[in-house]
Fold this sequence. Notes:
The chain contains 13 helices and 15 strands. It is of the alpha/beta class and 345 residues long.
Amino acid sequence: MTDYNEWSVDLGSKFETDIASNFYQKFQFVNFNGWVRNLLGQQEMNGIIKLNNGWLTTVCNYTADETLHECADSVIALKNYLEEQGIAFLYAIPPYTISKYDPQLPEGIYDYGNDNLDRLAEMLKEGDVDLIDFREVLHKENIDQYGMIYRTDHHWTSRAGFYAYTKINERLQKMLECQVDPEVKDFSNYTVTNYKNWHLGSRGQRTGAYYAGIDDFELIVPDFDTSLVRGNEKGTYESLIINMSALEARDQTSRYTYDTVLGNANRNYINSNAYNDKKLLILTDSFGKAVNPFLILSYREVQYIMNSLTWEYLESYKPDAVVMFYYVNNAVSPGYYNFTLPNEK
């Protein structure tokens, strides 16, 4: 059974989060508290900040250069090793709830998330890492970053996941000199079902349904034929990747719509309908759940690891490309770059 009870560091103390999530009539209490605070115009509740535009967030502390160098050096060492093996490498930076170009922070609230990511990005560039910084891509294309992130959750939306896929896929096709099925890349070949007021995310659970509202959740399903293999199971995109249980009945007390519906995306797949024979390895966290479904439909084989990568695994799997992207807090945490390379044996 898959565990969707995904606590994340942006929620603060795991103990306090578990208590807040389980005490008797908690949801009714939090809802009333959030309604009152919203009425009074208060912009902080239970460790959550409401931005001026209504989006909920937590703020990031400053990460020292020494820590960022430890992260960047690990990535650069991995990139160099992969190059020696003829394996392409791509690092992506997802958008953070607080936009670099339009922070919307209430007066007196300070955040270092984007500053941390900016310094990490510069270190990676200095190491010649092929980088997609989605904060910059969205800004250059005049796309509102807030529209790509759930109002009440720290994740990007399903539609943002497809957008990110198109950019990652464009780069991979050039790196690997291969083609991807045009149907997969064309958003018009998918059916989008919008579940209105359905998803009260990790931050919304701490502030209630009346403090910032409830997010819609979009389910994106291909209109074309799919044929996938996951372990000993064979099936379609809908049967193997999508878990409909969180969409069968609205449950505002659960923050796991995103994690449940897309949870199976962070697993290993073979795509029988692939236009190419390329193999990908994706190193990511829960942000990958919105992107991986479309990569799975694009390449012959996709495997997933969160962070503990070894050279033995690479030699066994022999991927053609490795793609890495993490949520802002994880991206600046050395524990997410726990790679074991030959010279470290």
